[in-house]
Amino acid sequence: MLSAESYSKDRPIFEREILTHLRNGDRRQLGFKYICHLVDDFEHQGPNGTHVCLVFELMGETMRSFGAWFKESRIPYSYMRRFTTQLLVALDFAHDHKVIHTGEFWASSSQTSYLSGANKYIDIKSDNIFVKFRDRSLIESGYLVHVAIPRQDRTEKRYTPVQSAPLRRYYFDKTDFTRVAEFDIALGDWGVSSWATQHLTERIQPVALRAPEVLIEAPWDKTTDWWNLGALLLELHCAVRMFDGRVPPDGQYELREHVAEIVDMFGSFPKELLERGNQELVRSIFDDEGMPKDVPPVNGPPLASEGFMPGLKQGARDEFASFLEVMMKINPAERLSTEGLLAHPWVGVRAEIF
Questions:
Q1: Peptide bond before residue 249 is cis, with ω within 30 degrees of 0
Q2: What is the total count of domains within the chain?
């Protein structure tokens, strides 16, 4: 249920319209089945106004909780490649239908925030990528049998909440715990997504994961989704965050520090991108070579290092880092297409995935 003011004149949101549009899209495209689709919607009249209620497909574990199934919360290599392929085609489906996700793959209502002036750093979570049930009948034969659903009395002033209960045990048939690698995902949380031709806002994405073009207030398009996905993949696969932009002693977020971290990882900002940004902001941060001014060098470890990719062999690090580097080009115009990303050796697309 959305808050009553979500669809008011002062608080526009495209969620219901975008979800309906995606649901009515071309079901023959590969990415259709990797999106958490809207089943129905209705409006509820409450004491605070009209609430838009959205009904979705049954979903259980998120990638965040799914990752906890594995050692050190790192999703294994083979699973990551499968899930990455599905996320790529899910986003490609959205992009083909003129929708940009804008990168809230990981935000949740329980987020922790660090305020710095007008900036808000959002604690990254992967709560909005769902791991699908392979056999939904296990919910009917197990969960719904053992978990009582409270009856609501409409005469009461307060509703009785439905207690949350973990669903992990219903992902597996008791005779088969070996098929974890066959799970599929569905991309959810389209509440902050935008039409390609009509943006909800220009200030998108959790601050620490904003694409370079968004940081300097330049125009952005669907390629911003690739930047965010790349940073998310590192966290899911290696349990390491790529950027945070925070400085000692109090961990306050600073844009200049964030830019320095990006430059240390991927190189200078190209002139053609800087020319499209907010010129007052650009002149205050960058020198003529596209490097941040008045900030000490970060001198961090390379992306394909133990520091960013602990627990992986060097060959696997190099291949994964190569994939992230082509996905996260500072210049949006240089980021690969979906086809180019799927063709990268790290993804290793196989026909049976689909």
A1: yes
A2: 2
Highest mean pLDDT out of 27-36, 56-65, 177-186 = 27-36
Task: List the domain range (segments joined by +) for residue 331.
Answer: 58-132+187-353
Q: With bands split at pLDDT 50, 70 and 90, how would you rate the model's confidence at 273?
A: very high
pLDDT (mean) for 294-303:
91
- Length, in residues, of the chain: 354
User: Residue 103: what pLDDT?
Assistant: 66
Tens-place pLDDT, residues 36-54: 999 998 888 877 778 888 8
**31 lies in a domain?**
no
Q: For residue 14, what are the contacts with CB-CB under 8 A and spacing of at least 6?
A: 193, 194, 195, 198, 200
Q: How far apart are alpha carbons 137 and 142 in whole angstroms? A: 8
Alpha helices in the chain (DSSP H): 15-23, 63-67, 77-96, 137-138, 144-146, 212-215, 224-238, 255-266, 271-274, 279-285, 314-327, 338-342
pTM of the model: 0.84
Measuring CA to CA, how many Å separate 184 from each of 85, 99, 142?
Answer: 10, 22, 21
Res 1: pLDDT: 45
Joined together, the tokens standing for residue 3 give 């808050």
CA distance 342 to 154: 52
Tell me which residue has tokens 């008045």: 294
Where does the pLDDT of residue 336 fall: very low under 50, low under 70, confident under 90, or very high at 90 and above? Answer: very high
How far, in Å, CA of 26 to CA of 36, rounded? 15
User: Rounded CA gap, 233 and 243, in Å?
Assistant: 13
Domain CATH for 320 = 1.10.510.10
Residues 235 and 268 in one domain: yes
